[in-house]
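All the exercises in this workshop are built on plain-text protein records. A learned vocabulary of local backbone shapes supplies the integers on the structure line. Once this layout is familiar, the rest of the handout is easier to follow. An example says more than a description, so a record of this kind follows:
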Amino acid sequence: MINLHRLLGINEDAFCDYKVHFATGSDDKKVAYNAFLIDEFKEWQECQKNKNFERKYILSLIYFDKDIWMFGGIYKVLPIEPVPIAEKGWKGWKYKTDLTDSGSEYIGRAFFRFKKEFRASYPGLELRPKKGDAIAEMPLSHILEKRVALTDFPGFDRVDIDYKTLKHIVSENILSWKTALSNVKGVYLIVDTLTGKQYVGSAYGNECIWQRWSSYAKNGHGGNAELKELLDVHGQEYKYNFKYSILEVCNMNLGSEYIIDREKHWKEVLLTRRFGLNKN
């Protein structure tokens, strides 16, 4: 069995030089993964609420799925004191780091199994938790032939992206996403990750999901009165709290009445009129 430190060639006497970053979000577990897909993980990681990187290296493990972590690289913490930052009500520290060549061939390709049963997101590599495997000895789950990339459409049932990612996909006109979403109508879900409130929408008539979501990418509300009202109250930056997924896809030949009926079904199932963002 291949484990973490052996695959990356880290000797046990060097464990004390490494902080492990279990990169995930409290509200959106895949926020770090989405940042990785649009090449913004380094910048995302460098902004911390506390002084979390007080060692020479950061070994980044990015949340991918339950108990599965993707290797995101080993970063050298530059010998400069982090800078305090305060932006839009958020206070923290800004680090400077360099991505090293160590294990670079496995970035976005190597996935490890680890059931994280402790709260700390920045433990030392030498930590041996009371339950489960030692961090350095977490087993390899699998290695992909090529690095994960946003150009790989994951399938309709695995779409789970934030607004920033959606905007990137549309502005870059990423072919795999455009091709997939341009050939289906259907019902989709938008979630406000700060409140958990949900909005059920649909693409029907002459619209495909790509066309509908392109309108969201422009301004966050896509013309929906409920979402526009939310942005008017909280400010335009609030759209960066939205996440998008697909509940159901339908053939382009299906009539509008069928898709509208399916939209009503999902609103009833998810109670989005009563507890969410749908008004009708």
The mean pLDDT is 95. Residues 4-143 form one domain.
